Every structure is written in structure tokens, then in C-alpha cells.
Amino acid sequence: MYLTPGERVFAVILNFNSADQTYRCVQALRRSTHPNIFAVVVDNGSEDADRVNLRRSLGPAAVIIETGENLGYAAGNNVGMRWAIGHDADYLWVLNPDTEPTGNALTEMLAVARRNRDVGVVGSVNVRGPRSNPIVHFAGGVVDWGSGVPESLHMGAPLASVETAEPYAVDYVAGSSMLLRPKAVEEIGFIPEEYFLYFEETDMCRRMS
User: For residue 91, what are the β-bridge partners?
Assistant: First the structure.
């Protein structure tokens, strides 16, 4: 399965009636500068037509696991994460299907993880808008633990304003792109499934702190 040396990274992508987006995400992963990446797509109870489209478009580019029902974000991703850990993953990269990682995104995230061995999760800067002038959609978050209100950092700022910043500590990273150490996941637990959608990554990151 692995033809080149380096950390074995399993990208877990949760599909729910989004086969076209998932296909573009997997295609983006194939352009990664990190040579040892493997896509695990979890179909979370999509309609029949979407599942057929998913298998037809991806072919051998990814392992596809079908849950048979919509388990929600946390439980669905946990299915893929458990599969990856069972296949000797060195890192887990949880990605939303509507993301298209740049070629060097994983390489840079791994570099941060290597320099900070005590860190269980590394996030990325997520952007939106035209490629010629992208703006920050998410670049880490902080939480007012008194009120429990989360705040996304740098949202709406030009990407150029954060591109040169050194990695920094945050209270949580976006569940749309988080690089996890399997050991950390096994120590603190998988994504909490009491949340069907939203805030589960915040809870998970808090338990890692």
C-alpha cells in the first residue's frame, strides 16, 4: 500500500450526499507534496444515487466505508478514524468534503506536529473567496470559558495577513481540517458523539489541553 517512506497519514472524509465535493477533495489530496497519504471516505447514509456516484468517481483512489445511516459528524468520522488506527495510521487528518487542501498544506502541518511532539492536534488556515484574493474563514478559535462562547480568529481577514505568522496555540481548531495523533485520540477519546453536529471539535480540543 505504501510505496514511499514517511508518516502514514489517513485522511478521513465524511460524505453525505456530497459525492462531487468529496471527489474534488480526494483529487486535491492526490496533489499533496506529502507522498504517503491515503483517503478513507465514510459515506454517512447518502441517497443511493450519491453512493453510486461516489464509488464510480473515486474508484481505487480511496477506501469507502458505508455506515448505512446518518450517524452525524462525530460518529461518522469516528468510524473512519477507528479504521485508520486499525491500519497503523501515524496521523489522522479529518477533512470536510467541501475542502480542497493545497499541495503543501499537509507537509506544513506535519512540520508543526514534528516540532511540537506534545501537541495532539494541529489545525490549518481555512480560506474562501476567489483564488486571486482569498480571505480567512477560520484560523483557530478561542473560547470564553465563563460563558462558553467560541470566537474564530482572523475571520474575514486577507490571507496575506496571516500567511507569515508563526504557528500559535488556540483553544480549538476547525473540525473541517484537523490533524490528529492517534495516540492522543486513544488517550482522551474519539470525537464526542453526544454532539450530532457542531461544537464537538471544540470539546475534543479542550480535552487535549
Answer: 9
Q: Which amino acid is at 74?
A: A
Q: Are 150 and 172 in contact (CB under 8 A)?
A: yes
Neighbours of 6 (CB within 10 A): 13
Alpha helices, DSSP H only, in the chain? 19-29, 48-58, 72-86, 105-115, 160-163, 182-188, 200-208
Q: Which of 207, 202, 184, 206 is nearest to 85 (CA)?
A: 184
C-alpha cell at position 43: 459515506
Report DSSP letters for 167-205, one per residue.
P---SB--TTEEEE-HHHHHHH-SS-TT-SSSSHHHHHH
Measured CA to CA, the distance from residue 131 to residue 152 in angstroms comes to: 21
**Burial class of residue 147 in the structure, from the number of CB atoms within 10 Å of its CB (0-12 exposed, 13-18 middle, 19+ buried):** exposed
pLDDT digits (tens, 9 = 90+) for 171-204: 999 999 999 999 999 999 999 998 777 778 888 8
- Rounded to two decimals, what is the model's pTM? 0.92
CA distances to 13, 106, 125, 162 from 177, in Å: 10, 10, 9, 17
- Annotate 104-126 with DSSP letters as a single string: THHHHHHHHHHH-TT--EEE--E
